[in-house]
Amino acid sequence: xxxxxxxxxxxxxxxxxxxxxxxxxSFIAVSKNVKTAFGLGVAVTFMLTITLPINxxxxxxxxxxxxxxxxxxEFADIDLSFLSLILFIAVIASMxxxxxxxxxxxxxxxxxxxxxxxxxxxxNCAILGGSLFMQQRGFGSVWTAVxxxxxxxxxxxxxxxxxxxxxxxxxxxxxxPGPLRGxxxxxxxxxxxxxxxxxxxxxxx
Amino acid sequence: MAEKISNxxxxxxxxxxxxxxxxxxxxxxxxxxxxxxxxxxxxMGLSVIAVLAFSNVIISLIRxxxxxNIRIIVQLVVVAGLVVMVSQFLEAYAYAxxxxxxxxISLIITNCILMGRLEAFAMANRPWPxxxxxxxxxxxxxxxxxxxAFFRELLGSGTLLxxxxxxxxxxxxxxxxxxxxxxxxxxxxxxxCIIWVHRSFNKDLxxx
Lengths: 205, 208
Hints:
The complex is a heterodimer.
Chain A lengths: L1 H12 L2 H5 L3 H7 L3 H30 L20 H23 L1 H7 L10 H13 L4 H32 L9 H15 L8
Helix pairs in contact in A: 1-8, 4-5, 4-7, 4-8, 5-6, 5-7, 7-8
Chain B lengths: L6 H6 L15 H6 L4 H24 L9 H23 L1 H7 L1 H4 L5 H9 L6 H31 L1 E2 L2 E2 L3 H5 L11 H18 L7
Antiparallel strand pairs in B: 1-2
């Protein structure tokens, strides 16, 4: 039950885009049309769902204070948490490489439309941010990590798809002042949606 | 990089014409998240300048020996090492600020400016221009950070660097701080306004 709550919280209240602004770069650049945006969103969700439990296990059994006690009593007070950044990013980068190869093989159309942004998932702040939040908040179990990861991923997917849909329409029908076209208006759309998402803050679950 | 670019333009272009935030749209996440107050924004800017300059130099030094297949991992490891150093340094000497910045110092690793510059510049250029490119882009990024933080702190809390600038008389006359400026969405609007102003002066950057 608690995990279900966390899952829903992660989608709406702790939304990666609207509450923390993580993963903005690819968010702004890839949200030009709904199809690509959805593809990237699925890739990010997938990555978050996989890397969060892996990094949770790393944190639980290798990195945090006393985590190495399963090796023997003399390892009980070793604290390796300063290594966590490097290990987390290595896990994320290698998982990205795997996903990239899989997408290239099974969905070449998506692969070519995502272009440079597929390898850049490795440096999508949302994914590393997820792992760091996991460490900061001290999640209790692997399931918690899976629920939070997939929730954050789906929240990201939701956000990018919604904004891409608005952008598609706006590009067709609206007469935007020249300097705001493209990037500028996207920022404003995102801000307005962020304000709308803040209404979820009042919900207690 | 086919054509030869002078060191001077490498250093100064990112300030405005090729600004990493406004034009290349890199590193937005941290611009939005750390700009509630001016002080963390300045610290963040300095950290990014340091990490960017040195990672550019290191990658540029070893650019011919990195196998292309694993270059992203190599770059990330170099950057991660530097970021760990910066974050340990801040925890030791500026604990309060590093608490405020929380995960965002660590997130310099995934700051797209770093990967973007490493891929686009340091992999193809000699160490000295790479260093200048790193410093230039870092400063271009910090300028935006400081502008956004200036407006958000001034309008949102009526202070600058923690000192009150809006006089008490104004509050007595009914002036109220705009609480909305502290909330995250307003950062997006401030950046959008900066883009608006910037692009109306640089017509060639406009879409269509």
